[in-house]
Inverse folding.
């Protein structure tokens, strides 16, 4: 039965229900619409989970992003514990894809960048979503907004497993095994959600719940139909071992490097906790589009310095490559070669084949420009050899030939 009020909030209608509770559209005391989630009685019996969630509420309230439905209020000591978030009017990504099919390329890249920005803000507050799926991404005028962040993780692994039927195929392997969920679990779920948006199917599909779980734990993801330039970050994000997945900063770097023209979806002006790195990559991309390569180099160098300070080799590799590319555009081949060689060393030490191929491609182009055809061919052969090793590890091979790889295409001024 629908309640007339939940705490100080006037209930208008029921929006839906999930494993954790029922969600209602309501009015606050100022007449603004909000979403009120009332925790199910059987879930509220988990007093340990409620205490853990209560400790995390303060951190969750610090998350401020145009791509997150922020937590506004909570009363976990009430007879019917509830949580209040910003109300997002729109359809879920799940509903949109099921009705219309895979998202167009531009919308897909915008979705990916927006979701990474959302996770960046969530993780900056020391919160892990743990249940990022197409159902938990609302689309409001083309802008992705993540809902229900930080709620599922507060309750024990057994309860999550019992209510996981709707999200099997998106949850990370370590969460299935009952291990502690870190931000890397969200990276896995982000990639699985992106594959669904690109193909209208799960990358770990199956006819039964057990089959989907088995494939998630043991099999490589099916990335058939995913745009080629998005495969590198998605494939790496879907690694079984959390330590092998990229950070949000490295994903931002990948989008702005492998998918030129990527831009964050325009959202209503709201207070945001977007990271400095995301801002730098966006500003550098805009500078490149204007032909201001010197300014772009300065921004990439700041990204590189932040990456070195934080030990983020994924972001560092992309920054080094972009520094080389910007110098190449300025026809400063000596500086470009220095950066490409640095990117190559870091990539090889990290066994990052796509970045290794990118750096080798850059060196091959420099060799061509100075008339050294033999060296150019040698670099190109090394790049293909780096990718051949990756293919043997299960990385999806191109449908036609390796020249269709984004990290082997010729550099375009």
């Amino acid at each position: 039965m629908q309640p007339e009020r939940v705490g100080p909030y006037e209930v208008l209608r029921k929006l839906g229900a999930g494993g954790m509770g029922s969600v209602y559209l309501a009015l606050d005391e100022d007449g603004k619409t909000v979403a009120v989630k009332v925790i199910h009685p059987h879930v509220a019996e988990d007093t340990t989970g409620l205490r853990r969630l209560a400790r995390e509420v303060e951190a969750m309230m610090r998350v401020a992003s145009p791509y997150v439905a922020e937590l506004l209020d909570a009363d976990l000591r009430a007879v019917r514990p509830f949580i209040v978030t910003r109300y997002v009017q729109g359809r879920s990504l799940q509903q949109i894809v099921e009705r219309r099919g895979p998202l167009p390329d531009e919308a897909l890249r915008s979705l990916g960048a927006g979701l990474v920005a959302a996770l960046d803000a969530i993780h900056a507050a020391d919160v892990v979503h743990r249940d990022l799926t197409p159902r938990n991404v609302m689309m409001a005028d083309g802008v992705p907004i993540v809902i229900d962040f930080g709620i599922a993780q507060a309750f024990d692994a057994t309860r999550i497993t019992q209510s996981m039927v709707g999200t099997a195929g998106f949850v990370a392997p370590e969460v299935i095994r009952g291990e502690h969920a870190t931000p890397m679990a969200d990276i896995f779920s982000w990639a699985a959600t992106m594959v669904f948006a690109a193909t209208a199917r799960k990358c770990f599909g199956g006819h039964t719940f057990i089959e989907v779980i088995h494939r998630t734990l043991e099999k490589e993801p099916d990335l058939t139909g995913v745009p080629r330039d998005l495969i590198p970050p998605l494939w790496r994000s879907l690694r079984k071992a959390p330590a092998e997945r990229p950070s949000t900063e490295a994903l931002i770097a990948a989008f702005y490097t492998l998918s030129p023209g990527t831009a964050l979806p325009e959202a209503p002006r709201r207070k945001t906790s977007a990271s400095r790195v995301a801002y730098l990559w966006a500003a550098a991309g805009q500078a490149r589009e204007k032909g201001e390569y010197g300014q772009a180099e300065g921004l990439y160098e700041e990204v590189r310095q932040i990456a070195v300070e934080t030990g983020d080799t994924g972001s560092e590799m992309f920054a080094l490559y972009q520094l080389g590319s910007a110098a190449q555009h300025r026809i400063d081949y000596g500086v470009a070669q220095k950066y490409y060689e640095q990117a190559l060393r870091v990539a090889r030490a990290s066994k990052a084949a796509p970045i290794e191929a990118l750096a080798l491609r850059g060196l091959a182009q420099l060799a061509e420009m100075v008339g050294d055809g033999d060296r150019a061919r040698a670099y190109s052969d090394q790049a293909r050899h780096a990718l051949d090793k990756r293919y043997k590890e299960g990385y999806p091979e191109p449908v036609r030939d390796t020249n269709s790889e984004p990290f082997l295409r010729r550099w375009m001024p």
